[in-house]
Amino acid sequence: MIRFFDILISLFGLVILSPLLFIFLIIGLFDTGSPIYIQKRIGKNLKIFNLIKFRTMKVGTKSKSTHLVNKSNITKMGNFFRKYKIDELPQLINVLVGHMSLVGPRPCLINQKKLISERKKRKIFNAKPGITGLAQLKGINMKKPLLLSKIDLKMIKKKINLINYFKYILLTILMILK
């Protein structure tokens, strides 16, 4: 049932937001010359997939966790895109094709060894990664791998049923709007 809503919501979001996505694409083109960023991430069952984002950093910046990136590498528009989570919108394509869900643990980078290890211990990779989840709502990011994996496990153990699925989506939207 969740997959049905992933497809429905991501398709609806891509169609409804297409004029804005086009505008953000043009803005990104002027900002960096290369508005789309494809990054290798680890998905369900440790399968690597290409995560799609709007570029927020200068072209050529090494692929690593946001908290490890020199702030000078983030573009002016990149700061704006990050603040309002606009850079995440292209991930609706990842949801549509089935690499991700709207709700689940954030997919980690292939070079985040400590986080990968902590998630393996807790079998987090048995779940499909998501755009949002409990850790994002609590403000926990990938610089705290142990805490992040524990919160991911808590979310997974609660079960991502339809009630929690829509709750996490609604709370994320409200958090962005604040």
Give your account of this protein's structure.
This protein is an alpha+beta fold. Helix content is 50%, strand content 12%. The protein has helices spanning 2-32, 76-83, 91-97, 113-121, 134-137, 145-158, 162-177, and strands spanning 36-42, 48-54, 101-103, 108-109, 130-132. The strands form 2 sheets. It has a 3-stranded antiparallel β-sheet with strand order 2-1-4. It has a two-stranded parallel sheet with strand order 3-5. A hairpin with a 5-residue loop joins strand 1 (36-42) and strand 2. The longest helix has 31 residues, at 2-32. The protein is globular, with a radius of gyration of 16 Å.
How would you briefly describe this protein structure?
With 178 residues, the chain is of the alpha+beta class. The chain is built from 7 helices and 5 strands.
H/E order of the elements? Answer: HEEHHEEHEHHH
Largest β-sheet summary? 3 strands, antiparallel
Count of DSSP H/I helices = 7
**% residues in beta strands:** 5-15%
The parts where pLDDT drops under 50 for at least 5 residues are none
Average pLDDT, rounded to a whole number, is 92
Shape: globular
Structural class, from helix and strand content? alpha+beta
Intertermini distance: 30 Å
Could you tell me the number of beta strands?
A: 5
Adjacency order of strands in the biggest sheet? 2-1-4
Helix content: 40-55%
Radius of gyration: 16 Å
